[in-house]
Amino acid sequence: MKDIDIYDFDKTIVPFDSGTLFCVYCAVHYPWIILLLPIEAVGAILILLKIISFTSFKKLCFIFVPFIPLDKAVKKFWDKYECRVNKWFYTRKRHAVVISASPDFLLEEIHKRLGFEELICTRHSKKTGMIIGENCRDEEKVKRLYELYDKDSINVVDVYSDSLKHDRPIFSLAGGTCYHIVNGEKKAFEFGKVYAEKK
Questions:
Q1: How far apart are CA 142 and CA 171, in angstroms?
Q2: Is the per-residue pLDDT at 40 higher than 80?
């Protein structure tokens, strides 16, 4: 049985939401994509009115992908922001599985640079920017983990995430310690105490 640690990515390994920051970066460096902003604005209104799901909205967020040199943009983005990876991530001791809702086309580059063992994230078409399958968040993170590993072949030790709200499913897997990441700092907590009233 393999001992693993699970990490969220955004606001956990890095102190920002990488998908949102990448959109801003692209708007600055490829300003013609601002012409697509009205479509995304309509999507934002629809999700606020609860007419569409978050996943449907997210499908609109990266519609600019066909209009930029994607691979070049991703590399330049991480050239700028790799330095902001939280230092404690470099001292990890176990097999690291990073599970994120951010796009695969964005995180695959930082996966190579940081050299952690496994990356699970939301699949997107590099041609259209559209989501393929489900958004990798909440219970979907656990589902995707068990698509990669047989449940009986791994022992989840520690789990790290900034989101107590959305990452209860992966925190529930921890056999060791749960770490809530706040402003880049690790704060250990007991799963049963934090979620006792939410069972």
A1: 10
A2: no
